[in-house]
Amino acid sequence: MEYDEHSTQVVNFVSGLVLGAILGAGVALLTAPQSGRRTRRRLQRSAVDVRSTAGDRWDDLSSDVKSRVDEALDGARTRFKR
């Protein structure tokens, strides 16, 4: 149970971090003194960058969680074999 709670906390933290970055970038770009066209282009580029970064981080996180679950299962199997 303890491991599941930790994994959930990590996923929630990363999700909040990504959402905060997206919202912060959007507010910063919308309040910048630039033309609408330029701002829209910057928003599009930022959204693509954030999506790519979030996808990469999610992949890293899911890989980390999978390896930890595998380690925990291996440890449990070892304990039950005794």
Number of distinct helices: 2
What is the β-strand count? Answer: 0
Q: What share of residues is helical?
A: over 70%
Number of domains: 1
Could you explain the architecture of this structure?
The structure is a single chain. This protein has 82 residues and is an all-alpha fold. The chain has one domain. It is 91% helix and 0% strand. The protein contains 2 helices and no strands. The radius of gyration is 19 Å and the shape is rod-shaped. It starts with a helix and ends with a helix. The relative contact order is 0.11. The model has no long low-confidence stretch (mean pLDDT 79).
Short note summarizing the structure:
This protein is 91% helix and 0% strand. It contains two helices and no strands.
Give the SSE layout.
Blueprint lengths: L1 H29 L5 H46 L1
Helix pairs in contact: 1-2
For the structure shown, list the relevant keywords:
mainly alpha; rod-shaped; 82 residues
